[in-house]
Amino acid sequence: MSPRARAAIALGSNLGDRQEHLRAGRAAIDALPGTRLLAATRVEETPPLGGLEQPAYLNQMVLVETSLAPHDLLRALQAIETANGRERRAHWGSRTLDLDIVRYDGLVLTTTELTLPHPGVATRDFWQRELAELAPHDA
Fold this sequence. Notes:
- The protein has helices at about 20-30, 70-85, 125-135, and strands at about 5-15, 35-40, 45, 55-65, 100-105, 110, 115.
- The chain is an alpha+beta fold.
- The strands form two sheets. Strands 1, 2, 3, 4 and 5 form a five-stranded antiparallel sheet that branches. A two-stranded antiparallel sheet has the order 6-7.
- The longest helix is centred in the middle third of the chain and has 14 residues, at about 70-85.
């Protein structure tokens, strides 16, 4: 069995039934092999990032315990996005479901596919609020 890590995963949606996309994302993350959902933040509506004209996002963050390695977790999250109708057409574009690994234990990593902690954490106030909300569950 692989060692278990705690990961914070951000969920976002600004197309279709946003609440349902977040619910489906949480359920699919919890169903990943070797992974269990430990906590979820409240859902918050935020304006879109990147300056494109598009609907507001619903955002949430979950804390999981997983035996998946970081790149395996990333691939699994991308498969969940695709299964929920995500189309990668434009950077910063609208999406049914966006899943980002914000942090993975204390790992610092930079590859072509994945940067940890996520570089957006320093500039996204809502992620900082969500991480603070998860902190009591991350002992």
